[in-house]
Structure to design on (694 residues):
C-alpha cells in the first residue's frame, strides 16, 4: 500500500483513459470518478477495475467512444441506452438527467439499458446528494447468486443505492461546511467473491455466515463458499426476492436485459439495465426543516447503546468523509500492484 | 383454525368497522382490504390486527373519521397528512393518488405523514400492480430493531414493498386470466417478534440465525432473542443501513417523524411516515414487451437447480395466487380466537 496525491492519481487515470480512446472531456470525467472512488476508500471499485475496463475495451465489449442516448420519454421518466459505452460515464449522465427531471417535476427517473459496469455504485448517490437531491439507483449484474431455495446462480448481486442530502449548515453550504449526506451502497449478496477471497487469503473466517458449505450448512468459511458457489443473499429469502424484483423492474423500465440474459464471463458483462431515480426534497420542504429531520435521526442512532463502548452505530456514508479528508491530506492509499498496472496503461 | 366464506368474513369486518365509527363507504373498503389480507394468507396482518385497531380507536390514538389531506405538491410529488385516521385507508388513498400522478407524469409519489399502521404492506403493492403500475412503497415504524453495532432499538423494521405488474395474457387481462404480478413485501428485521413467539410456542429453532443471545453470539433460539431484544436486521449491517435510510427519506419527504419520534407503546404507534411511489411501465413500453421481460426472468428463476428436487425457487408473490384461490374456493382460514374477537366487535 502506498499513498498517491489525489491530483497525480487523477491525471494518471486520465492518461490511461485517453490511451483507451476516450475523448479528452470524457477521459477527465472518468478519471475524476475513479480517483474519487479510491479517495473515498472503496478500493475494490477504483483503479483496481481499470485493467478489466481496458481489457473490455480491447475485446470490443465496451465501446470507449459510445455515448448514452435518449430512446423515449414520458413526463418525468425517460428511457436511455448506454450503447455499451463506459458504464460510469453513462450512469453519471443518467443521474444528471434524473436530477434535471426532478428539479422540473419534483422527481424524475432515467431507465438505462444496454450499458456496462458503472464501477462504484455509491458514486451516483453522492452525485445526487451533493446537488441537494435524494436518489435511489440500482443496476443489475451477471447472475452470480443462487436464489433462495436453489443452488445455481440465477440472480445478480444488483447493488442498490439510497442517497439523502444533508448539509451541516444550511446557511453555509460551502466546501468549508461539507455536505454530510446519508449514502447507502449495498449489493444484494452478503459478501462479494472479492471479499470472500480477501478473507481466505488472510486465513480469516467471515464475521457472520456468508453462504453454504458442501454439506449444505451455513458457514463462515470463505473457501467453502467459493467451492460451492453458494454465497448468501442478504436476509436469505428476503434479499433473494429484492434482487429479483430490482432486476425485473430495471429491465422493464429500460426495455433492457434481466440478469439471466447477461453473459456470465465478467469480460463480456455488458447489456446491463439500470435505474436512476432522483427526488427533490426541497420542492416540498425547507433545507432547515429537512436537515432537522436528518440530524434528529442521526443523533438517535448515535445514542443507541453501542456493542463496543465509545463506538456508536454509524449511518451509511458516515465514515466516508473522514476517509476522504485523510486521502486528500496524506494522499490516496493504493495497492502497489494496482498502481503499477495503472502506470503501465498510462504510459 | 376454521374456514369462513370470504363474503361472510368481509361483511363481519365491515360491521365491526361501522361500530368503531367509520363511515359506511370507508368501513366497506377497510373490510375488503383486511379480508383480502387473510384471503392471501397473511394472517398476522388481517383480522388478527382488528382488536388492536379497535383499542387504538377507543384510546383516541386512531381517529376513525379522520381522512387524509393534501398538504403541498410540486409536479409529480405530493405531501399528504394522514391526520391519524385508519392507516390502511390513508395508505390506499395515497397509492391511488400516486397512481394518478404516474399516469400523468410517468411516475408519481405521495409522501404521507402523521398516519397510523397500514396493516399489510403488500396490499398497496397489489393495488398498484393490479392497475398495471409498478410501485415501491415503505413505512417507518416504532423503533424495534437495534442498529448494527448497538444493542438498543433505534431503527424501525420499516417494511418495504416492490410491485411489478404482469399479466398472463395481455390480450385478455380479465379476471379469468388473473394478473400474476411480482409483489415483494419485506420488513427490515429478519424475523418479527410475532414470528419469534410463534417458533418459541412450537418449541422450534429458527431456520437461520435471527438475533443475539445473552453472550452476544448469533443464535437460532427464538426465546434467547426475545430476552435480549436484539433481533437481526436482514443482512446485518446492510439491512441496518437500509432501514435507517428508508426512515429518514420517508420523514424528510413527508415532513413527518422518524422512528425515534414514534411512541414505543404499540397502542400509541402513530405519526408514521410513508412513501408511495408509482411508475407506469406502459408509458415507455408495450404490455407485450414488458410481459416478455418478466416472463423470461421468471422462467430463468424457475430453471435454477432447486435445493429440494421439484421445488423450484419462487418469485415474490408467486405463492399468493394459489393461496387466494384456495381461500375463495374453500373459505378463508382464520384462527378461532381471532374470529371470536372479530364477532364480538361486530355484534
Amino acid at each position: 500500500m502506498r499513498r498517491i496525491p489525489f491530483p497525480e492519481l487523477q491525471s494518471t487515470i486520465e492518461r490511461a483513459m485517453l490511451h483507451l480512446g476516450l475523448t479528452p472531456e470524457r477521459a477527465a470525467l472518468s478519471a475524476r470518478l475513479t480517483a474519487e472512488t479510491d479517495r473515498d476508500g472503496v478500493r475494490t471499485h477504483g483503479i483496481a477495475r481499470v485493467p478489466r475496463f481496458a481489457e473490455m475495451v480491447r475485446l470490443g465489449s465496451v465501446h470507449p467512444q459510445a455515448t448514452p442516448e435518449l430512446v423515449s420519454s414520458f413526463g418525468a421518466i425517460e428511457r436511455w441506452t448506454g450503447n455499451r459505452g463506459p458504464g460510469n460515464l453513462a450512469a453519471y449522465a443518467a443521474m444528471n438527467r434524473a436530477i434535471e427531471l426532478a428539479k422540473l417535476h419534483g422527481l424524475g427517473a432515467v431507465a438505462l439499458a444496454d450499458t456496462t459496469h458503472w464501477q462504484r455504485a455509491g458514486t451516483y448517490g453522492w452525485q445526487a446528494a451533493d446537488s441537494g437531491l435524494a436518489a435511489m439507483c440500482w443496476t443489475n449484474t451477471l447472475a452470480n447468486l443462487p436464489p433462495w431455495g436453489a443452488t445455481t446462480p440465477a440472480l445478480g448481486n444488483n447493488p442498490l443505492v439510497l442517497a439523502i442530502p444533508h448539509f451541516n449548515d444550511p446557511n453555509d453550504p460551502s466546501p468549508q461546511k461539507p455536505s454530510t449526506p446519508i449514502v447507502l451502497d449495498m449489493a444484494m449478496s452478503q459478501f462479494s467473491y472479492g471479499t470472500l477471497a480477501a478473507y481466505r487469503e488472510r486465513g480469516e473466517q467471515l464475521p457472520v455466515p456468508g453462504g453454504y458449505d458442501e454439506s449444505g450448512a451455513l458457514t463462515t468459511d470463505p473457501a467453502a463458499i467459493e467451492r460451492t458457489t453458494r454465497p448468501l443473499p442478504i436476509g436469505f429469502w428476503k434479499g433473494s426476492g429484492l434482487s429479483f424484483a430490482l432486476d425485473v423492474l430495471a429491465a422493464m423500465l429500460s426495455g433492457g436485459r434481466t440478469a439471466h440474459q447477461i453473459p456470465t464471463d465478467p469480460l463480456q458483462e455488458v447489456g446491463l439495465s439500470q435505474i436512476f431515480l432522483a427526488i427533490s426534497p426541497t420542492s416540498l420542504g425547507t433545507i432547515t426543516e429537512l436537515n432537522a429531520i436528518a440530524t434528529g435521526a442521526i443523533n438517535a442512532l448515535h445514542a443507541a447503546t453501542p456493542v463496543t463502548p465509545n463506538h456508536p452505530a454509524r449511518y451509511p456514508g458516515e465514515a466516508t468523509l473522514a476517509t476522504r479528508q485523510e486521502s486528500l491530506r496524506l494522499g490516496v492509499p493504493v495497492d502497489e500492484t494496482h498502481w503499477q498496472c495503472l502506470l503501465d496503461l498510462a504510459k
Notes: The longest helix of chain B spans residues 87-105. Chain B has a mean pLDDT of 95. Chain B touches chain A through 86 residues (CB under 8 Å). The first strand of chain B starts at residue 2 and ends at 4.
